[in-house]
């Protein structure tokens, strides 16, 4: 029988990984997951395909990981076995049997990220500094909201991506469904969801908006950069450790009906 497609909703602390994608000489999330899948499949290579490639230091609360396993591996059984063998900084939060046409990357309709910023002194606490950008400075609230509002809708994001990382014919257009700065105890979280994201895109956006909110750049910077052809005038990207992939959305029809 054909291998069964299973979606593993995966969480990880990215602090000790060189990113998601498998690499020969460094530790990655994909590499660790595929080693466990190899043990469970009796030594066969089982690819773990992610919905997206998170950078070194970036975390995930809901990375979509697709695998194809023999029929004896139900989604609940695979989740239990994976969690028994994975290292303590990776955890499969949920597992779902999917329809044969499911693809973890191309089937996704939206991805949601969150970026944490700490503006109080306690942001340097060892319990916070691994997962948020400790700025220790107040931010202009109106500036944050105004710049984020410019992101909504469909735009070309060449100014907010690493040059030459997308295919030559890529249009660099993304549809932003939601973009908002939400207050939290001790700081802010930038929440953003879109149909797709480019390499470093969220971190470039956060770095630029923070510069505006600190008075380093004028209001309207985001709107101006959205119509520029490159990233030459974009602020440096925000640190990776404040970013987390929160959720990947798939059509309901791709979730198989068990029984």
Automatic annotation (TrEMBL):
Reactions performed catalytically: uridine(38/39/40) in tRNA = pseudouridine(38/39/40) in tRNA
Top EC class of this enzyme: isomerase
UniProt-recorded Gene Ontology molecular function terms: RNA binding; tRNA pseudouridine(38-40) synthase activity
Keyword set, alphabetical order: Isomerase, tRNA processing
tRNA processing in keyword set: yes
Xref: InterPro entries: PsdUridine_synth_cat_dom_sf, PsdUridine_synth_TruA, PsdUridine_synth_TruA_a/b_dom, PsdUridine_synth_TruA_C, TruA/RsuA/RluB/E/F_N
Enzyme Commission number(s) of this protein: 5.4.99.12
Residues that, per the record, bind substrate: 113
Domain Pseudouridine synthase I TruA alpha/beta: 10-106, 148-251
Active site, per annotation: 55
GO biological process: tRNA pseudouridine synthesis
Described purpose of this protein according to its UniProt entry: Formation of pseudouridine at positions 38, 39 and 40 in the anticodon stem and loop of transfer RNAs.
PANTHER family documented for this protein: PSEUDOURIDYLATE SYNTHASE, TRNA PSEUDOURIDINE SYNTHASE-LIKE 1
Summary of subunit composition and partner proteins: Homodimer.
Record-stated family: Belongs to the tRNA pseudouridine synthase TruA family.
UniProt name for this protein: tRNA pseudouridine synthase A
